[in-house]
Amino acid sequence: MKKIRTTLFATSLAFALTSVNANAQDAYTLTPLTQEAVENIIKLSKNDDLAGQNEFFSFLEDKKYRKELKKTKALIAAGQQFLKAGLYQQAAELGRLAYEQDGSNFDAVMLYGDATYEMKNYGEASAKYEEAINLKPESKEAYLKSANVYKYINPEYALEILDKFKKKFPNDPDVNKSIGAIYYYQNKIKEAKAAYDTYFEASNGGDIEAQEQYAIILFAEKDYQASLDKVNSIIDKNPQALSLNRMKFYNQMELMQIQGAKESSDKFFKMFEESQYNATDYKYLGQLAEMISDTALMINSFEHAIKLDSSNTDALRGLSDAYEKIGEADKAVETYKKFIELTDPGSANGILKEGKIYYSCAAALDGKDDKVDLKKRYVEEGDKYFKKLEDLAQESYLGPFWRARIQTIMDPNNPIESVKECYDRAYERLANKDESYNTERKECLVYTAFYYFKKDDYTNAEDYCNKVLALDPEHGLAKSIINAIGQLKK
Q1: How far apart are CA 215 and CA 252, in angstroms?
Q2: Mean pLDDT over each residue of the chain, to the nearest integer
Q3: Contact 442, 475 (CB under 8 A)
Q4: Quick one: which of 368, 451, 389, 387 has its CA closest to 417?
């Protein structure tokens, strides 16, 4: 057995060395002078892009390199270095020159296609990849890159290319990765997941980009734990990946892993330029801020989200809630109106919520003598919304019920005629409701009992207290009023 293993190892090694040598024979090595010039341009471009471009065009015109750059292979070798360094404009120019010198050279065509693809010139790139397929029909790379570029301009045609690839290379797993990427780009989540599942099964894990997209697909499918597990399994291989750090934060938020989400968000929002964050990033940050009771961060985050996407309903709702928390009723209602316009325009529920915002902010000012005028304005504004609701939904008890509640804020210790009238109308509208509405009925009845008690009308006060006690024999306030009436009658 040991002999067999040794033989296999030797054979594999010999094959590997043969492959390396074969590739080395095919590869073109630039002269030291030209190589130095290429490296200098790359180094210069990292610090000053404009200076790097100027140096590049001087390089093309310099007589020292002209003889070598007349060789197609030299142009390709230099262009591939620029491509790898991310200097796509320089790579594209050398790809163009190589293609013009020898349009039948597969590597020249592929270089030109790769560089124009990176520059998002998808029309030129797709044309070059199709030429590459015609030049070398046995090249898997040309098929896959052609399909990849067509996913942006014609996804259905990209799938046709991959169908041809399948027929030519029936056992190659990469085709399913490409199919998954196309469906992913089209937002066809189920189809993308199925293709990636097939790819991972055949490829024992797959590449990082495919796994990143798979984590996003799992998130879209609401399989948050599986998505988080996938992210955690690959993030160390690419710790600076925007999508992986984003998905880790998102998944932890959905799983309510608050401490983990806090740590991930602190890291995520320090890693990248501000322009790289989107509305959903800030939406989740705002929700996290609410969970940890950081209202200032909550407002800042939701405002960022809305600035990036004014139709982000979660952010609008969150910002409205944040303004409500700090008592800014006008801002809260203004923001909530935008939310309602997008989700349920003109609805009774929207009007009710707008009134409730004023109610909440007015109630929060109780006991603040320097805010009496503001509290009164909030009460009046809220009452307008509840009046609108009362007129709009004439079968609903909610309009008059909440009008009574908000009016009571101004003087909760003394009976108000208009409050009693609102509760009376609410009680009438509750007539056809089942016993699950008894809490609301008791609130209407006990206020009326309190009203009559304060007016020294003990007969009516006692009568209404008995109606309350019929619904709830242990109702504390009703019993207290009856006891007080009994003491007064002695």
Answers
A1: 13
A2: 90
A3: yes
A4: 451
Query: Contact at 8 Å (CB) between 203 and 170?
Result: no
Alpha helix (H) residue ranges in 63-203: 63-69, 72-84, 88-101, 106-118, 122-135, 140-153, 155-168, 174-185, 189-203
Q: Give CA–CA dist 66/46, Å, rounded.
A: 25
**CA dihedral (48, 54, 58, 59) positive or negative:** positive
Q: Inform me whether the pLDDT recorded for 13 exceeds 50.
A: no
Closest C-alpha among 405, 455, 416, 424 to residue 481: 455
Helix axes 224-234 and 208-220, enclosed angle (nearest 10): 160
Residue that is written with structure tokens 């043969």 in the block: 18
- Which DSSP symbol is given to 414? S
Which three-class secondary structure string do you get for 155-166? HHHHHHHHHHHH
Question: What are 450-479's pLDDT values in tens digits?
Answer: 999 999 999 999 999 999 999 999 999 999
Burial pattern 62-79, b for ≥16 Cβ within 10 A else e, equals eeebeebbeebbbbbbbb
- Measured between alpha carbons, how far is 152 from 119 in angstroms, rounded to an integer? 13
Contact 280, 288 (CB under 8 A): no
pTM: 0.69
Residue type, 219: F
Task: Look up residue 344 and give its amino acid.
Answer: D
Q: What is the CA radius of gyration of the chain?
A: 36
Instruction: Centre a 10 Å sphere on the Cβ of residue 292 and count the other Cβ atoms it contains.
Output: 12
Task: State the pLDDT at residue 205.
Answer: 63
Comparing 145-149, 317-321, 393-397, the range with the smallest average pLDDT is 145-149
Exposure class string for 275-290: b at 16+ Cβ within 10 A, else e: eebebbbbbbbbbbbb
